[in-house]
Amino acid sequence: MPWALVLAGALLAGCGGGEGDDEGSGEGGAPELSVTGAYLPEPVNPEVAGGFLTVHNAGGTDDALVSVSSDLTGSVEMHETVENAMRRVGELPVPAGGALALERGGSHLMFVDLAEPPVEGDVVTVELRFEVSEPLTVEVPVESATHTGGEHEDHGGHGGHEGHGEDGEAGEEHSP
To answer: Known InterPro entries for this protein (predicted)?
Structure first.
């Protein structure tokens, strides 16, 4: 009988709850990212353009946006605005169960050294790369220079229509 108990114990041990087995750590498993509300206003300055979108994380693990690339330019920077001053950052957090809002007057993408400025009606392909998650490719529409979001369909990868109409603040012009 002791042999049967040992075998039963081994079988039960193999049926454990699997906590911590998901990529990333935490009870909710890996990040689950989606993008909504992406747009790029037609730039006023022909050398730079700002990009705006919201990255949602429905998963149970934090992630971070660590780099961005685009067919528009060889250089896309991530900026945050603190006390009316822009500064380049190396990453932007995407909290578990939350969102990273890239919006006018706050954190945003900066497309620099444009060979040719995009015009309203163009679509720009952007690849977002993350610390944990696989990259997301987003088709970003170029809107009028005064566009503030919330008036178009979702153009992001993997997303619904959450997050539309959240900014609406007047934007600032950016220069290199």
So the answer is: LpqE-like (IPR007410), Lxx211020-like (IPR058248), PCuAC_sf (IPR036182)
